[in-house]
Design a protein that fits this description.
- This protein has 781 residues and is mainly β.
- The chain has twelve helices and 43 strands.
- It has a 43-stranded mixed beta sheet that branches.
- It is elongated, with a radius of gyration of 49 Å.
- The termini are far apart.
Length: 781
């Protein structure tokens, strides 16, 4: 009978329809009656007790086979009481040989989202998978192992009853057992390490391929490769160390391995790049490749790896108990490694350095690390030199570094900051706390060279303002994260030149003691000179005070003109053309003056003003920006004294002065005077006298007003000023007693500057005239 093409297509379509219908209907059929046979077949294939806790369903499309829910594969109780594996579902594909042998056998097992326990018994010394693997060496009669696939799995590692803190997640595993006894296993593995003490997180992703030919006597031979994808260095440090130490970067690796399982030879390369601190952007530079070789003993659970090549750095890694209580360590030996690239690396670790800093020298040493002991080692740096353009170099002929856990210590080292004698420098830094602590001592070191060297740390207060001089003593610098560096210590300085804002020239310090401590500094035992004025005293700086600068000065004799010259930058400001000509705009204060808040207690032995010597001038100055105030300014005048409130306003182009006070026991014209009044003026130099305005009330006794007349008392009110260089004096409410007579009246200067007094008594009048300078009166006709 001939079958037509049309009939053939109908038969094929019918078969496809039946297959499709079977595939759609089969998963909905209850196949639990096959559960016992499936369970027995799995136990025969795996050599382990199997427990099925869920449904068993037929699967046509993927097989034929079965889909089993909630499957538990138990382990050998002698090795582990915890199951070997438990999974959400297991897909088992029936071997085609089962159709003509009548025995249910599986050719493929797919474990979906399983949790596998790879366990090792310390006394028996073998893995829980050893019996399963051993079946391929001498397979039981009539049995064969299926191919095994794992998708979305997790692999735990156990030693006896203790689980390792490290496990593999997102595992994709393909295991192809040998088709005949003595054949070759083929394994493909992809997964990401993780830790049980951290939230679910992948620490990189690796892939491995291996072919293993087992042998009962030697354990067999293995041949394969492994690749680590580009991963975060910080994540691998966190995986191994347990926490992030703040160092980030990228790492990748490729390796091949081959040989007997007791001595697997490994050869590969690891590449590290973009090293930086966690809170900084990666530099996108820096590439360090390391070729390595080593051996792995799977029987003894040991690993030994060493870098190869002729580079200056050699790294060795040793590990034991890999699948159990692992212990490992690493050692780096380096010889003659240049320090030239250290500044760029330090910058990526948060230790900022100037862009024009050049570093010379090399370093040699050995550093070891293990999780239990941390970092330990020693290194010696030779010929170290730090140099910035335009500044003297810093040289350290030899420096010893000691690494102890998270701490790096620099042993005391002779450090040359310039041509002067060396200083002794030692330091300590903690990677864990990011705290730096450095101490520098000297017997006679140059201040400019020292400030240039410590400028990287922000500069030591007081010393950084000195352009000359030497110091001896101890300086300490401490830096904590998220805080400004702090200086402390006590030093003595000599022959220093100090620049002070607001003074016309430098301050020369013959000697002084500087004590640095939070929240400021103390400079005492000061002996110095500013211009022609010599002084002693002390200075305190307190950053948390309302007026941080606090000064106490004792000054020898000085001329008022010299004081004005020294203070000229604070008293006077240059104005622009428009401001001077049209009085437009506003005089701008310099920044240092706006921000100045200071107090000063001063004692001047003598201030010389032409025609008016002042002795023992004392006061307590309060200086806030452009406002100066001395609430109780006092001075001696001709055996008498004056005391009052002095104020100065420095906001304009020239200073404005005001004094309000009283005078007492002042000797003048043969008598003693007292009174109260105010004095106002502005400007500098001769302007002070031209702009002077005085108003005062006075009282005197035993006054020789004329050669022939002596006033027993004289009182009144006075107003004095200058008009075009001519003194203008007005005397009012005058009261005088001459003998037993009392007089009242007034006085004033005329246009020619002569003083005229008119006094009237009950019986007679007194009319006097004369000059103010020199002061001389005589009867007026």
């Amino acid at each position: 009978m001939r079958i037509t093409r049309k009939a053939l297509w109908r038969m094929l379509a019918g078969a496809a329809g039946l297959t499709l219908a079977a595939g759609l209907i089969a998963p909905r059929l209850d196949a639990d009656r096959f559960g016992t046979r499936v369970k027995e077949s799995l136990e025969a294939a795996l050599g382990r007790r199997v427990e099925i806790q869920g449904k068993v369903r037929l699967d046509v499309f993927g097989g034929p086979g079965f889909s089993v829910e909630k499957v538990v594969i138990h382990d050998d109780p002698a090795v582990s009481l915890e199951p070997l594996a438990y999974m959400e579902s297991l897909e088992a594909r029936v071997s085609f040989a089962s159709f003509w042998t009548g025995r249910l056998q599986f050719s493929n097992l797919r474990l979906v989202n399983p949790s596998l326990n790879l366990a090792r018994h310390s006394e028996r010394g073998e893995l829980n998978l050893a019996p399963l693997v051993g079946r391929t060496v001498v397979a039981p009669s009539g049995s064969s192992l299926p191919e095994i696939e794992v998708r979305g799995g997790r692999i735990n590692f156990k030693l006896d009853d203790t689980k390792s803190i490290v496990y593999l997640t997102d595992v994709s595993l393909d295991v192809s057992p040998p088709s005949s006894p003595g054949g070759e296993w083929r394994v493909r593995l992809q997964g990401a390490p993780a830790r049980t003490d951290r939230a679910t997180q992948r620490y990189g992703l690796f892939r491995a391929r291996a072919a293993w030919r087992p042998d009962a006597a030697t354990g067999g031979t293995v041949n394969g490769s492994m690749e680590l994808e580009r991963s975060s260095l910080g994540e691998w440090i966190r995986l191994v160390h347990g926490h992030d130490i703040g160092i980030h970067g990228q790492v990748t690796s490729r390796a091949r391995f081959h040989g007997p399982v007791s001595n697997i030879e490994i050869e590969g390369r690891v590449e590290v790049s973009d090293i930086h601190r966690w809170d900084l952007l990666p530099p996108y530079w820096g590439y360090w490749p390391f070729d390595y070789k080593g051996t792995l003993d799977m029987s003894g659970q040991t690993l030994e790896v060493d870098t190869t090549g002729g580079g200056p750095v050699r790294i060795a890694v040793r590990a034991s108990g890999i699948l159990g209580k692992s212990a490992w360590g690493a050692r780096a030996a380096f010889a003659g490694v240049p320090l030239a690239g250290a500044t760029a690396m330090a910058g990526q670790m948060g230790l900022a350095a100037p862009s024009d800093l050049n570093v010379g020298g090399d370093i040699t040493g050995v550093v070891a690390y293990s999780p239990g002991s941390g970092i330990a080692g020693m290194a010696v740096a030779s010929g170290v030199a730090f140099e910035i353009a335009g500044k003297p170099p810093v040289r350290i002929p030899k420096a010893e570094l000691v690494l102890d856990g998270p701490t790096v210590r620099l042993a005391p080292a002779a450090t040359f900051l310039g041509p002067e004698a060396p200083v002794r420098f030692e330091a300590e830094y903690s990677w864990r706390t990011q705290v730096f602590d450095g101490v520098m001592t000297a017997k006679a070191a140059g201040i400019p060279e020292t400030t240039a060297a410590v400028g990287l740390a922000g500069g030591a207060p007081v010393l950084e303002q000195c352009s000359k001089g030497t110091w001896k003593g101890l300086l300490r610098y401490q830096k904590r994260p998220e805080q400004a560096g702090q200086w402390s210590g006590v030093v003595e300085i000599q022959d220093a030149v100090l620049e002070v804002d607001g003074l016309a020239g430098p301050v020369k310090l013959a000697s002084a003691r500087v004590a640095l401590r939070e929240p400021g500094a103390v400079v005492d035992r000061i002996r110095g000179q500013a211009g022609a004025a010599t002084f002693t005293g002390d200075y305190r700086y307190r950053a948390d005070a309302t007026r941080p600068h606090q000064l106490r000065l004792s000054i020898a004799a000085v001329e008022a003109a010299e004081l004005e010259r020294l203070l000229a930058p604070a008293l006077r400001r240059d104005e622009g053309f428009l401001t001077r000509a049209l009085r437009l705009g506003r005089t701008r204060l310099p920044g240092w003056l706006s921000e100045r808040h200071a107090e000063a207690t001063f004692n001047i032995a003598e201030v010389t003003i032409p025609g008016l010597p002042l002795g023992r001038v004392r006061g307590h100055l309060r200086w806030d920006g452009a406002d100066l105030q001395v609430p109780e300014l006092s001075a001696l005048i001709e055996n008498g004294g004056v005391v009052g409130d002095f104020r100065a306003n420095l906001r304009g182009p020239a200073p404005v002065y005001r004094f309000q006070g009283r005078f007492h026991e002042v000797v003048w014209s043969g008598g003693e005077w007292e009174g109260t009044g105010t004095l106002n003026t502005w400007g500098m130099g001769s302007q002070l006298l031209r702009n002077l305005r005085v108003e005062t009330g006075f009282a005197g006794r035993s006054i020789a007003m004329t050669p022939d007349a002596r006033f027993k008392t004289l009182s009144g009110q006075c107003a004095f000023s200058l008009a075009r260089g001519v003194p203008v004096l007005h005397l009012t409410k005058l009261q005088a007693t001459v003998g037993d007579d009392t007089f009242e009246g007034k006085g004033a200067t005329s246009a020619d500057g002569r003083l005229n007094l008119d006094l009237s008594g009950p019986e007679r009048e007194l009319r006097l005239t004369g000059t103010l300078s020199p002061f001389r009166l005589e009867p007026r006709p």
